[in-house]
Amino acid sequence: MKKMQVNVKLGSNSYPIILGPGLLNTSKILFKKYIPKCKKILIVTDKGTPDKYRKTLLSNLKNFKVTTIVFRSGEETKNLKNIDKLLAILFKQKLSRDDCIIALGGGVIGDLSGFAASIFKRGIHFIQIPTTLLSQVDSSIGGKTGVNAREGKNMIGSFYQPRFVLIDPDTLNSLSVRDLFSGFAEVLKYGLIMNKNFFEWLEKNAYEMLFTRDIKLLTYAIKESCKCKALVVEKDEKEKNLRAILNFGHTFAHAFESAQNYSKDLTHGEAVLIGMFIASHLSKKLGLLKEKELTRIVDLYNELNLHSELDYFFTEKDIPKLLGFMRQDKKIVGGKIKLVLLERIGKAMLKQSDLNTHVKKILQDHFRGF
Ligand SMILES: NC(=O)c1ccc[n+]([C@@H]2O[C@H](COP(=O)([O-])OP(=O)(O)OC[C@H]3O[C@@H](n4cnc5c(N)ncnc54)[C@H](O)[C@@H]3O)[C@@H](O)[C@H]2O)c1
Q1: Choosing a second label site near 261 at 20 to 30 A (CA), which of 11, 12, 74, 104?
Q2: Is the pTM of this model over 0.90?
């Protein structure tokens, strides 16, 4: 299959997302083209990212002096201590601003190494090689980098764009089913909030794509998702307005994750899938989304078995606690929360919704089975 490219147009911070199965094997040429003055490279990865990808990458970096650091997998890796560790290596190996950091792994590694790249000598070249579906369609695009603080997730960070993003969908062969479906939450989100054609394509192809991991279908879905994210980021690089629509389902998801203390039992993607399902029902209830369209969304959830068991974690009695977490959201004004809802499939909008009536009621409906 041919190599494809999606450009993220951000003036002097523009960069390409280069995409294609097997691309990791032929990445040498990209390094020469995009970081011509680079001599030293720091590869940042984690234990859960299979070794074979690092080996393939290394075989394409023979002309560089390469150092590798392998972190433990998991959200806990995104902390300031590890930023300190990365900075220490960068100083010790004497990397200059012409040199480069490569993030090889999922969103955790991308966020962590991107932040280190943004602060080392006020910015060293940074390349993203995302290897999970979530990182390929979401976290590697848009330049948000950062780590977690005691006070909250992603509370320390910067906007810092990579020189390029290299996506090899073949890396998804080794991904766990859970991580594949977690990433799919974001893929489906793009169809729902901004691209009806893509939603219709997913209606026809998502089942085969997810259950057989057909590489052509996966590549197409990743490319369309990257195009959607690039479009939003280009219009609103620093998250002042439009970028908010990317939070569809996420306000609910954050409440579920917070109430679960970010336990691994409920992944972010699973929480987003539930959040989008509830937000779609709320959209219908508030007279925005037509019944017919809601039915199509519900049908797709049923076909792909996307329902995570919220009842396994919470009961109706937990609603006050969930509302409590939503109340802490920065989008709250006078008991009303700005939620991303669907006007129709393929078109999202921001709407003030009352926490004590609309949101509470839709959560009750959810626990009672709509
Ligand atoms: N910067 C952004 O805009 C943005 C957007 C969304 C999410 N995020 C962040 O992304 C993170 C989640 O990313 P994630 O879902 O990729 O999780 P992750 O990075 O924890 O990866 C999930 C697991 O998959 C393993 N893995 C990676 N590649 C693999 C492969 N090819 N085969 C098998 N296993 C593989 C990892 O080692 C890890 O154990 C969160 O920290 C979240 O805050 C950032």
Answers
A1: 104
A2: yes
